[in-house]
Write a structure and sequence with these properties.
Layout lengths: L2 E5 L3 E7 L15 E7 L1 H11 L3 E8 L6 H9 L6 E3 L6 E7 L5 E6 L8 H9 L5 E4 L4 H10 L6 E3 L10 H9 L3 E5 H8 L4 H6 L3 E6 L2 E5 L4 E3 L12 H14 L4 H16 L8
Parallel strand pairs: 1-4, 1-8, 2-6, 4-5, 8-9, 9-10, 10-11
Antiparallel strand pairs: 2-3, 6-7, 11-12, 12-13
Helix pairs in contact: 1-8, 3-4, 8-9
Length: about 280
Amino acid sequence: MARILICGTLAYDLIGRFSGRLDAQTRNVKLDSMVHGFGGCAMNIAYNLRQLGHEPVPLVYAGENFAPDYEQHVLGLGISRDGIIQVPGIDCARGLILTDADGAQFTAFYPGPTGLERLHRDLAVFASEDYDGLIIAPDLPEKMLACAGAFVRTKLRAWCPGQYAEMLSVAEAREMLRSVDILIANRHEWDALCHRLPGAEISRQLEEVVITDGPHPVTAVHQQLEVRVPQTSAVDPTGCGDAFAAALVAATLENKDLAEAVRAGISQASLCLRTQGSQQH
């Protein structure tokens, strides 16, 4: 069992599905269904790591409405509450996610409590402990940078930039790349990073770059590896990238080779894809 710290967000998700298609001209949609769920990338990753038999330690900031629903969910999963820091006077983060008939998604995210005013104090406490791995999940650039800097001695450090790949400056992207070992991104996020820095420069600073691309093969850049994604029934793509990252890191810490680790990521993402919500598989 590996002990893995995950820095990022905790959020409630509101997931709507509609039968049309998202495009640049979409302004209004009529939803066919709408469900509430537990989310936030760090907590989705923690959920998957727990399902895989590891010990996740999420370091996240939660609002007043963390209890009772999300708190009971976390306790039921047996996930450590030590790093779930409740902030009074503000609600939890919330993701508003629209999924179209092709599985394409539009996401609006309310960040809730950022914890910026106390982040460095909290990082100092957690940096005094030992972890087998670190996953930096999507979050405000200043938070991702602070987390990367605080845990440089952790032996396996993975970064999932998520939607923030579009918001990083060139200097921020370079600093993040110097502080991690593995980059895990989807094709859109990889392209966004490559608009800031040449792909060769990004790859040169890392032990590996793993790029997912929906139903298309997963690419590991350094080993020039492509792993096919088997066809599966798709119910909801929410959280699939988090499931993939969790299983990839877990398999790497279990000393699996890269191809096996990528296949583990694909398998876990497929489980997520076949269920509604990001913490139900």
